[in-house]
Amino acid sequence: MLVSATEMLKKAHDGHYAVPAFNINNLEWTKSILKACEEMKSPVILGVSEGAAKYMCGFKNVADMVKNVHDAMVITVPVALHLDHGTYDGAKACIEAGFTSVMFDGSHYPIAENIEKSKEIIAYAHAKGISVECEVGGIGGTEDGVTSMGEVADPEECRLINDLGVDFLAAGIGNIHGVYPENWAGLNFEVLAKIQEVTNGRPLVLHGGSGIPKDQIKKAISLGVSKINVNTELQLEFAKATRQYIEEGKDRQGKGYDPRKLLAPGCEAIVNKCKAMIQDFGSDNKA
Ligand code: 13P
Predict the structure, then answer these.
(1) Distance, CA 248 to ligand 1 centroid (Å)?
(2) Domains of the chain, with CATH numbers?
(3) What is the pTM (predicted TM-score) of this model?
(4) Which residue among 14, 64, 71, 84 is the active-site one?
């Protein structure tokens, strides 16, 4: 059974580690991530953007697929199915479709509107036992066509959203989605510490988790980050392994063109990268 993310993130916050939130894009991603987490005995959040859900033929299909894969693989670690950067309508639709956690991203609205809409989604989700993540301020980079540039959140706005009773909170601290530029200034720990102070120990979420140096990951966790979102890193690993397979001409040997063979090295690369990140986040053996 899939679970909400509330309890696993409370435990992570108390235990000073972070639960990985790996984005899924298809069946291969789902299987590979679940395999890695089961072998590492790590709780996991499977993130799904609205764009990825559309690609996978809708929220209902995603929820059914994840539940079926979870059961067929006899997964025993806690797994939450989470809408990533959801719209108001998207969050409601996911709650109906069987997701166990949703993010409502109202960070692009004026704060009063963000508060109003966040409040509604929190009430709607909590009535069904579903966890909610809300966001304050912009987060840099490009995701699903939305661009912002490593923005930093206002701790006072974080306090306002926190006080609505959100389960975990995303706030910009200079993090960026996608590949970090070479001149990236790094995470703003001063703001992170302030946000944690005014949010009274609420589990915090770090978006743009691909390519952040390990020492910064560790420091962010020590300051209250309990969920780290990763998408790009697994995509790069998959692409690299697949490219190598084709460049070595393996798709032309025997039945190497069979998708079950062609996609296998990419899947193995996802498993290995997930395992390494689980160790960096400290969530191994925490299931
Ligand atoms: P990356 O693609 O940079 O890993 O970011 C993922 C993310 O934050 C999803 O919300």
Answers:
(1) 30
(2) 6-235 (3.20.20.70)
(3) 0.95
(4) 84
